[in-house]
Specification:
Number of domains: 1
Mean pLDDT: 89
Helix content: 40-55%
Strand order of the largest sheet: 3-2-1-4
Largest sheet: 4 strands, antiparallel
Radius of gyration: 15 Å
Low-confidence stretches: none
């Protein structure tokens, strides 16, 4: 994709989406570095501590729509960030943003059997709905509590 094409798509976003995308472009490399240095458990626990002070509430229809848009923006930022970010940093970033908004998303990690063996994937669900995951066929497994590291 050309720079002018990417720029025109960026300008076409509304102001809220542009701000979210810019924030994700900054946060994703930080999460990626944290995963590399401290691993999944400590990174997830740090995000949990950072977002725990926000009271939880049930998502509205608008919250679900915004969360879906956030997950799509995380995919874009994952491809465009200074350090490309795979599904795990993207899911952790979406999870953190939603928790800071007072929502109670679930971080999911699952596997499926692919042509080259098992494939792992991370995503976020809100109110039981996988965000920005058309055709998801991974089987999730139980994650340990995030405060246990």
């Amino acid at each position: 994709m050309s720079v002018s094409g990417a720029l025109s798509r960026f300008v076409a976003l509304d102001a809220r989406e542009r701000m979210l995308l810019l924030a994700l472009l900054l946060v994703l490399p930080c999460i990626r570095v944290s995963l590399r240095l401290w691993g999944f458990g400590r990174t997830r626990a740090a995000i949990s501590r950072w977002t725990s002070r926000y009271p939880k509430r049930a998502p509205s229809a608008r919250d679900l729509q915004t969360a879906e848009s956030l997950a799509e923006l995380a995919k874009i930022a994952g491809r465009r960030a200074p350090l490309a970010a795979t599904c795990l940093p993207q899911a952790l970033a979406v999870h953190a943003v939603l928790r800071r908004r007072g929502l109670d998303p679930e971080l999911k990690i699952g596997v499926r059997k692919g042509e080259a063996g098992f494939e792992a994937h991370a995503w976020v669900e809100l109110a039981g709905l996988p965000l920005a995951q058309p055709g998801l066929d991974h089987q999730p497994f139980q994650l340990p509590d995030s405060d246990g590291g």
